[in-house]
Each structure stands twice: as C-alpha cells, then as structure tokens.
Amino acid sequence: MTVRVDVPVAPARLLNVDALRGFALFGILAVNVWAFADPYYASPESNPTFDSGLDHAIRFAISLLFETKFYLLFSFLFGYSFTLQMAAAERAGTAFMPRMLRRQTGLLAIGLVHGAALYYGEILSTYAILGLILLACRRIAPRRAVQLGIGLVITVGVVWMLLGLATLAEGGAAATAASDAAVKLTAFGGDAAATLGFHSGHLPETVAAIVALQAPSAMAMFFFGFAAGRVQVFANPDRFRPLMRRILIFGFPVGLLGALVYALAAAYAPGGGVETFAFGLGQLTAPLLTASYVVAGLMLFRTDPGRRVEAALAPMGKTALTNYLFQSLVLGVLFTGYGFGLVDRLSPPAVAAVVPLIFATQLVLSRWWLRGHRYGPAEWALRAITIAGIPPWRRHGD
Fold first, then answer.
1. d(Cα 114, Cα 105) in Å, to the nearest integer?
2. N or C, which end of the chain has less CB nearby within 10 Å?
3. Spatial separation of the C-alpha atoms in residues 344 and 346, rounded to whole Å
C-alpha cells in the first residue's frame, strides 16, 4: 500500500483527542501527587510514617496502573497533535518550520520556569527538545515513524534490562536516598523560599534523570502519535477497528503483565538490579498498556454514555497546558512551603483521595473558562509565541 506523505487535512479540533488528553492529565496527577506528598517517593527507602498494608497496596496500585504509562499517553498525543499543527499551518497559509520553532521555544521557556518554581520533575522542557527531533523528521512516512518508535522502545528496554542484570551480577544496589528524602521533607515543610530553593536546585539533575529514564520512550511515542496523525486514526476510528481489537486482545494483557512485574519490583525490591531489570521490562511493555488505554477510550467515546464522558473531559484537554501547570500549583500549595506544608502528613488513602477532588475541580473550571475564552491562559501565551501575534483572548459570540 502506498502512503502519501503530504500533510493531511484534518479537522481543526478533534474532541476525542482533547478527551484523551484530559484523561492523561488525570493519570499524570495521580502520579505527580506523590512527588509532593511523600518525601520517600521514588526512593529505595520505605516511608516510616505510613507503612501499613493499605498504604503499600495504594502505592502498588499507582505503580501498576499509572506510573510510566500516562506520560507515554501524553507523549503519543503530542505526536498526534504535531500533525494537527502541520494542518493548522497549512490552513493559515504560513510556513510550518518557523511557526513550530517558536512554539517549541515557548514550551521550553514555560517548562523551565515551571520546573524551577513549581515542580522540579516537570517534563515540558524535555518535550520541547524532543519536538525538534520530530520537526526534523516531519517528512517521514507513517510506516517509517512506527519502525523508529519500535526500535527505540526495544533498545531502551533491552539496555535497562541488561543494566539490571549487570547490577545483580555485581551484587550492587542503589545507594540509599534517605538523606534526599530528609532534605525534601525539610524544604517542603519549611517556608516558600526553602521550597523554591529545592525546586530550582534540583531542576538540572532531574532534567538529566528524565532524559535518561523517560526521553527515549517519550520520543518513541512521539513517532507513534505522528504516524497515527498522518493516517488520521482519531478522525475516523472505525477504519482501524481490527487493529484496535488486536491491541486490546494482545497488548492489554502483555502490557499489564509487564506493569505487574515492575510494580512488584518497585514495592518489594526497590533500588537495586531487580527493580532496574523490571523497569526495562516495563519500558518494553508500557506502550502496549498505554495503547490499550487509547483504544478503550476511543471505543468508549463511540457509545452514548461514552460521548458524555468525552464531552466532560474535552474542555480539560483543550486547556491541557494550563491544567498541567495548575496541578503543580495546587499540589505546591497543599504539600509544600508555598502553602500548608502537608508533605508526609497525609496518609496514602488521603493522598489518593486528593486526586479526584483536584481533577473534578479542574473539569468544572475548564468548562467554565472556555465559555468565555478561546484558549486557556497558558495556551493563549504559547499560541501568541507560535503565531508571533496576539490571538483573541475572549470569545465573541462564536
């Protein structure tokens, strides 16, 4: 089959893309909340304050269903939206390259400010850099993009698994991070200046860690999303039902099995070769579980109840950048020196309960905001940079 490589003419706005982006924000919030609430999160040390069976079960569920899956979903949607940006530039009759370079520069600036002030673990700056690679590859065929994505996934997974085996062979383990947890607890439990110092001071090393741990997989998902956008999967999902069925039948159980191995290692063998090996296995299988989430969402949105879910999530996705930043702001106010300083003071069940409360509030606020505005505040700023002009701020009867 011959695949055309010209820019597809897609609808200006796809509700299912926005809805999936809103869903991705839920998963990202469910993971990021622990980086604020638990100083021992991602540490080989167990939290001595909350160590009950229920506490461990909740952390295990987060590792199983959310960790390493939802940033992949967001990355996939970034790649898909890249093709929508291509189509938007074509409709506007403007050159795509300078437009996208401005957009990535703006995203990098927003990401660095976000990381230095609100959340040192932010990923926007990484997306900004990886987007330049996608920009350079924008003329490749969908099949080639899929091949590159698969190659990256396999390479990353195998490298981490071999690193885990090497660590086991040497009998080594990761150094304790108890001191890091103590520093974080002191900073988040202190004043705003202490919190700001922690975020800004840890940003460089965290960006480096994200590049090593997440960037290759995110780039793979960029390629997968780009390929899906070029053949307009979301514009006409019914054309791809056989493929979607195979993803659910094969991808979901394999992805869930890999997630189970990773979650068990993170819970019961943290910080050493076993967890490193399991992380590599998870990198191999997480894209399959993420793909299953996408397919399940698309199939749900084709049903009558699902259309209501889609309509509820879409405003959140339309203002995804604003909502991502807003999540960090709210979590900062709740758990750090910017506000109440509740770090290590809420039990895991209470922390988990915070997630739907914040998300529900965002759903309501997003719908309310879009009644009077075309874009979220952060989206407006990024669009202004992208088009090198002043976009409309409010709606005017449209």
1. 14
2. N
3. 6
Asked whether the whole model's pTM tops 0.70, one would answer yes
Query: What is the token pair recorded at 160?
Result: 């981490």
Return the C-alpha torsion angle 252, 253, 256, 260, nearest 10. Answer: 180
The 3-state secondary structure of 62-129 reads HHHHCCCCHHHHHHHHHHHHHHHHHHHHHHHCCCHHHHHHHHHHHHHHHHHHHHHHCCCCCCHHHHHH
Beta bridge partners of 394: 373
Residue 146 phi/psi, 5° resolution? -65, -40
